[in-house]
Amino acid sequence: DQQVKQNSPSLSVQEGRISILNCDYTNSMFDYFLWYKKYPAEGPTFLISISSIKDKNEDGRFTVFLNKSAKHLSLHIVPSQPGDSAVYFCAASPIQGGSEKLVFGKGTKLTVNP
Amino acid sequence: EPEVTQTPSHQVTQMGQEVILRCVPISNHLYFYWYRQILGQKVEFLVSFYNNEISEKSEIFDDQFSVERPDGSNFTLKIRSTKLEDSAMYFCASSAQAYGYTFGSGTRLTVV
Hints:
The complex is a heterodimer.
Chain A: E1 4-5, E2 10-14, E3 19-25, E4 32-38, E5 45-51, E6 56-59, E7 62-67, E8 72-77, E9 86-93, E10 103-104, E11 108-113
Chain B: E1 5-7, E2 10-13, E3 19-24, E4 31-37, E5 43-50, E6 53-57, E7 65-68, E8 75-79, E9 88-95, E10 102-103, E11 107-111
Parallel strand pairs in B: 2-11
Antiparallel strand pairs in B: 1-3, 3-8, 4-5, 4-9, 5-6, 7-8, 9-10, 9-11
């Protein structure tokens, strides 16, 4: 039962270029979405989030886009840096950041080549 | 920067033994969680805890699992009789309302 899907297990980009990580969801009750970054042997680190009342949220080099009608969100990293190389998880929640659980996708491993 | 601390970082246990994984959440957070990630798979929700009781649990969180907040600072996950398939990274997380969770670095549990 994959309510949150990240269909690309890996992505490789050149330093300085844009990285686009995609995520699809199936549950219409989700209205808060988050991206986490994970390095090996560490826990997921919160990166950026978006509420369903918005279609875009930007924080420095990171921008998340939400298309509610398509049940699709994407994370754009520009310009990509070698230090961005990590596994990126998309996660969704039915309410904004409260006590509800997060449902994670399987992750996309991003490699940024110097 | 406040962080969630988990101990131990790696635990090896024999099948059938009890294990306790420990977590110290961020001090002013009110919601606490355990997640796990089996190698190569997605991060899965186990349980959420608020106001000294379980608020939600997944089907993974069966009678072999329990959580406790014994002293107001620690948050523990106990597995009563471990199975081989319990081998995973276990992540503790805490949150204040209306913000993303903060995860700990995880405990790698290996059941042999």
